[in-house]
Amino acid sequence: MAMSPCSSGGVSSSSVLGADAGLEIRTRSVEQTLVPLVSQITTLINHKDKPKRSDKTLQAIQRVGQAVNLAVARFVTVGEAIANENHELKEEMSVACIEAKRAGETIAELTDVASLDHPESDSHITIFTDKTGVVKAARLLLSSVTKVLVLADRIVIKQIITSRNKVLATMEQLEKVSSFQEFVQIFSQFGNEMVEFAHLTGDRQNDLKDEKKKARMAASRAVLEKCTMMLLTASKTCLRHPDCESAHINKDGVFHQMRLALEQVIDIVTDSRSNGENELASISIYSGIKVFKNKVEGLRENLYFLSKENLSTMLEVILEHTEDFTDSAYTSHEHREHILELSKQAKMELEQLVSVWMQAQNQKTKDLMEDLEVAILKMCQCMNELKRELHSAATSLAADLLKYHTDHMVLKALKITGVEGNLEAIAEYTCKLSEQKEQLAEMCRLLRHVSGTEPLEITCIYAEDTFQVTGPQIVSAAETLALHPSSKIAKENLEVFCEAWESQLSDMSMLLREIIDVFEGRRGEKRVYLSLPRPGVKYVFACYKYIYRLQEQAKIAKLGLELHLLTSYVDSETEKWEDQENKIVQYVQGMSSMIFATEGKKLASAFHAFSDQLHDDGKPLLLLETEKLIPMCQQLQITAKVSVQGKSATFTKVDACIQKTRNVMTLLCQLLPLCCRLLRKVS
């Protein structure tokens, strides 16, 4: 955002902050906070040169100036409070607040014109007599306010870094635990810390302006989500089989992957310029073709803005990348031949374009300019055909591979041979999984070239990484199970890693659909990419699965409290009935005393009998709600009669019973007031 010291013309809200401010606004929240202030100041600046100055206009200007000053004063109060709570920012924040306050007061003084009959002739300096003063004050105000917001944003970044550090510290403890009891305790803490980190990073992801960074953040958070469950089962397997090398390899791989993802999040949040991000910028053929075509079409306006060597180099880079397709063992012969043919044609079209272009530079005749236009059109058409052929090659390959691997036969075989303890078979299926991994990784690389948008391109890159990492982890988990075929924990661990693989395949199907939508123009500008992970805390549930007992106790306690409140409400409703001997009242009282077995059915009969006395619009509603009561009571009876063994199963049964009881009591809370009203009508 930049505002130049305008003199006469109108000022737009997109040119409000001086470039010399050196402040980059990276989040939507900061940008949106500035919008009202920008709008008001723009109004003031655009009014300073208007010749017509009615009393109404002068009053409006003064109101805007006062509103700006008041808003800034409140804003400064918040900034000063932030400074007092964050000593490392206090000095910078205090200076910015002082500047903002001073600028706000200056604007209020310059706009104090409502009481002046002839503001330009008065000795009092105003927006009309000091035209540069209001621009200067506006720039200072916007610069200082932006600085306060950016400094406040640093606190959010600090919170994320602090949260990440907590997670890392707890992960180090988890790596060193030697007993299940210790692991449960620390993993519980880890779960809580991941909840905090998920919320903070999810909010930050939504707030980022840069779509590329937002996609990278989403991908990194998805890695953390999937890895949390893997970390749980891999750690449990190591604790159960401490001398198993493959179990330790499996666990170490998960911890390493999580640390990389955590660092990636911090790189994005702190805007670190990693080498990886620079690499991402130049790998997409689609991006290269788009830039190349823009340069070619730019020749219509300017024949001298680039050299023929630059244009040739750009095409050369694009054609080098097409070798990813032509060299791939998975590209069909037909697609390979078409790509090679179009690449050759592109070189010929460029030669023709350069020839006409050079002639036009020397002699800009009408005929030469027409020839140049034809050459430009033919060059762009050739690049479009090349793009279409690459898209067809990548998407058809992806569709075939995803369809072929939907049966998950290799994963199923690894699970079976693992339980059988057949290490030779494990080795055989490991080779097949490795081959499948290479196929899917190649698919991701080709899709990345034709993805069409940076967010989808980044998703392809992370998908490739996921297959490359998860494949070996499945192998180590399978080897562990084969060495300990009766181990339930090792079996569960392999299941988790296989599920991660299957989940990634499912994500790829969604990603493929979106890439096709982008190519065919079916995606609107504001559409959310379904393949990109949303901010969420799903992995929190994985964290808490292991501390199931503690969570279930808390859950049951919460449900019990809700049920107690519902029961109290039902009791208060029955007390409103004048006839306490009414059968409906008696049955409800029996149910609120937890005698559901027979009282619920009797209550339903009583409601039906009562409905026979009704002849108004309330009867259908009463019958409709009553019909829900009998199956609810029957479900509760069935659940209560089921015999279970073990603490976990008992908690599950108690939870189900309380849930169903709560549903019944909630229905009663709706039926009782309705019956009471209808009863008064027939009495």
Automatic annotation (TrEMBL):
<dbReference type="InterPro" id="IPR030045">
    <property type="entry name" value="CTNNAL1"/>
</dbReference>
<dbReference type="GO" id="GO:0045296">
    <property type="term" value="F:cadherin binding"/>
</dbReference>
<dbReference type="InterPro" id="IPR006077">
    <property type="entry name" value="Vinculin/catenin"/>
</dbReference>
<protein>
    <recommendedName>
        <fullName>Alpha-catulin</fullName>
    </recommendedName>
</protein>
<dbReference type="GO" id="GO:0005737">
    <property type="term" value="C:cytoplasm"/>
</dbReference>
<dbReference type="GO" id="GO:0007155">
    <property type="term" value="P:cell adhesion"/>
</dbReference>
<dbReference type="InterPro" id="IPR001033">
    <property type="entry name" value="Alpha_catenin"/>
</dbReference>
<dbReference type="InterPro" id="IPR036723">
    <property type="entry name" value="Alpha-catenin/vinculin-like_sf"/>
</dbReference>
<dbReference type="Pfam" id="PF01044">
    <property type="entry name" value="Vinculin"/>
</dbReference>
<comment type="similarity">
    <text>Belongs to the vinculin/alpha-catenin family.</text>
</comment>
<dbReference type="GO" id="GO:0007266">
    <property type="term" value="P:Rho protein signal transduction"/>
</dbReference>
<keyword id="KW-0963">Cytoplasm</keyword>
<dbReference type="GO" id="GO:0051015">
    <property type="term" value="F:actin filament binding"/>
</dbReference>
